[in-house]
Amino acid sequence: MSQPTVPDREAPSITCDEPGSFPWQVFHVRHPALIRRLLEALPYGQAERQAFAALLRESQHDQVAALSPEAPDFELWQVWGKEQYGRPWRQQGFLWSESYFYRRLLQAGGYFGDGGWRGVDLFAPFKHAELDAPAFTGDLAALDRQHALADGERERSLLMTAVWGNLADLGFTIAGKETGDTGALAADDSDRLWKLLDGGLVTVVADNSGRELLADLVLVDHLLAAGRAREVSLLVKPQPYYISDATPSDVLDCLDRMTGAAGAAPRIGGRLRQALRDDRLRLRAHPFGCAPLGYRDMPGDLREEFAASTVTIMKGDLNYRRLAGDRLWPPTTPFAEVTAYFPGPVAALRTVKSEVVTGLDRRTAAELEAADPSWRTSGTHAVIQVATPRDRE
Fold first, then answer.
1. At residue 175, does pLDDT exceed 70?
2. Domain 135-392, CATH 3.30.70.360 — does that match?
3. Is residue 309 a contact partner of residue 329, using CB atoms and an 8 Å limit?
4. Contact 249, 237 (CB under 8 A)
5. Which PANTHER family does the UniProt record give (predicted)?
C-alpha cells in the first residue's frame, strides 16, 4: 500500500534560527535554566558538569555532533539524524533539534555510560517532587468530587481534566510559566470523540508524568469501567525524555501514589492494577516514542497498532507537533488534512504550548490572534480535535 501524500499546502518548517522566537528562547533560555536545575538537584561530578556545559555551547553556537558508534542507539540515530550532523543546530527543524538535545542531555548525564549514573533518570527529582506536592494531593482528593457527578457531567469532567492536565508540564514550569486556572477550548470535537468510544481497542499515547498522567489514568479507568473501551493500550516513553515525559516507571509510581491515598483514588488505582494483570490495560514503550520525527514516519509495527485501534488518543503538545507536523500551518488548515496519513481515527487532547495549530474556524483564529499574538505558546487555550478516515476521503 502506498503512503498517503502530504498536504498540498505544505507550510514552512519551524526552526530555531530567528533570535527571540519561541524555539530560539527554548534553546537560549529554557535549556540553560533546565541544566541549572539539574545541577542543583543531582550531585554530578566534574565530567558530567563539563559535558552539560559543552552541550549548551554546541547547541547554541556550533554544529550538530553525531553520537559515538558505541552508543546503544547509534544505528537508530544514524537513520534519524545522519543528514543533520555537521550542520548548525539553529538551522535544524525545531522538533528534530529539541529531541536530539534531550537525547544528548541523557548522554551528558551518564545515562548510557558504564559509571554510577548509568540508567539514572536525571529528571526523577522533579517528577518525585510533583508526586509529593500539595497540588497532586489536591488532584487525588478531587477524584471524590468527580465520582459524585452525574454520568454526563462526570465524563465531561474527566475529559477536560485530561486535556488541561497537559498544562502540568515540568518543561513549561521551568520556563517560568505558572499552572493555574484553565483557559478556553479553541476547538472542541468532544462529542465526536465520545461517539468513537464504542467498546473497542483504544490506544492512548501519553505525554507527561505526574499530574497529567494521573488525569490520563483516571480517564483510562473510566473507559474500561464504563465499557467505553474493551481494552486500552497505554504508550509511554522507553526512557527519560523532555523532562517530565512518562516512562513505565512513572506509571507505576503514579499508581503507588494513588493506592496509598484515601477516598476514590485507591479504588481507581486498584482497578487499574487489576486491568494490567488481566491484559485489559497494556503498558507499552516503543523506541519511536523518543524519535525526532513526526508520526508520518512511524515504523510499520506502530502503524499496524494504530490501524487496529478504534481510536488513538494523542495526549499533549509534543504529540500534537509530531502528529500535525512541526510546521507553521495557517491555523485554519483542516486537522484532517494534516493527519491524512494516519492509519485510523485519531484524537488530539492538547493544551496549546507551541506554534503548531490547525483545525480552527476563521472567526476563532482571527479573535485569538487579535487578542494575544502569543496565545499559541502561553498555555491559555486547548484543543480537542478528531479526524477519521471518512474525513479524509
1. no
2. no
3. no
4. no
5. DAMAGE-CONTROL PHOSPHATASE ARMT1
